[in-house]
Amino acid sequence: MSAIPPVLLSDEPGSFPYSVLAERHPAIVGQVREAFPYGPDQHRALDTLLENCTKGVIEPLPADAPGRDLWTDWGMDEHIGRSWFDIPWLWSESWFYRRLLDAVGYFGPGPWQGVDPFRPFKLAELESPETDEELAALDDLADRPAEEQAEALLHGSLWGNRADLGFRLSDGDAEARAAVPALVADDSAALRTLLDGADTLCLVADNAGRELVPDLLLIAHLLARGRVRRAVLHVKSHPYYVSDATTADVVDALRRLTRAGGAAAGYGRELWAAMADGRLTLRAHPFSCAPLPYEAMPDDLRAELAGATLTVLKGDLNYRRLVGDRRWPPTTPFAEVTAHFPGPVAALRTLKSDVITGLTPATEAALVAAEGQRWRTGGTHALIQVRP
Ligand SMILES: O=P(O)(O)OC[C@@]1(O)O[C@H](CO)[C@@H](O)[C@@H]1O
User: Fold this and answer.
1) What is the per-residue pLDDT for 158?
2) Looking at the predicted complex, does its ipTM rise above 0.95?
3) Is there an atom of ligand 1 within 6 Å of 315 CB?
4) Is 340 helix (H, G, I), strand (E, B) or coil?
5) What is the pLDDT of residue 286?
6) Which of 56, 132, 155, 164 has its CA 20 to 30 A from that of 313?
7) Of all helices (H) and strands (E), which one includes residue 32?
8) What is the count of structural domains for the chain?
9) Candidates 19, 158, 164: which one to mutate for ligand 1, based on the most atoms within 8 Å of Cβ?
10) Cβ(317) to ligand 1 under 6 A?
């Protein structure tokens, strides 16, 4: 068993975690503020949040705040009074989204209850010409052999993870940088074996829009071909990390598909029918927005995932939560750091933060020789890792 490195904090100026707290979060506050005709109370609360998240300390949730008990279970009391930069990065990031939702009145009561502050950005992406193009490409794919379709849809879902609005906010050039198609780790053969004839596939979604659409297409394909009997799509219980998918985002994506025409509409109808007959279900467990690694998941979720043939975790944040948000030596075996997970698990992720495991020494050496450490955070590399 490898030695366990400490969890990532955000206290090192110049590091990626530091930039997220010092730059990305203030930028998100600014964008949300501009996107809605908020009133003076909300503007004041956003000012307070901005000051607090960059210069202040963790302050307790009010006694009557919704979800306060959960946050107490998730370690709030031990962080109170400490700088956001000195506590685990994973924790302070989740806290930021929680406090942002408080500031705009998301948890209510009041007229802004349930109004997703990120919805305008998510909808803009769903309506973008890029989404049109991606959906139109499905018409050509429809004539290809089933295996080729499955492969294309799997890679669509994987690379869809580049479409992360939080990431693009703090890295304006991200989209223009060319992706490197060769995966840094590729267990897709093991993934195919697990998916073939699977009873239950749990897919833990990441971003809405241009990531969720290909996730849904992949699920539709697997269900329609009978490769998977049923699928459970785990989404966030509330808006999170800007573009993370909620139930409302699934509904928007399904509507987008069904009105697209062509092959896309066929996928949309398949998914709509699968929702109706129970082959596709949604799950929004509160732990989906917890500031903790999956190793700490509660018993009910553990039991549920233990019953799945395979759980596929999408994206960078889920990867961090799966392996623990630690600076592992990159060659630490993936199977070792995911041994805690209650069943077979796969990660589909583009690399957008420092955490990485499961590389061969040769792969790591080649990446470092070519790019220094930029490959870790640039969003140009991707991986498929499986622990059967
Ligand atoms: O999980 P996702 O959408 O793939 O990526 C999330 C992300 O943009 O946000 C985190 C930093 O704020 C990092 O894990 C990563 O850069």
Assistant:
1) 97
2) yes
3) yes
4) coil
5) 98
6) 132
7) helix 25-35
8) 2
9) 164
10) yes
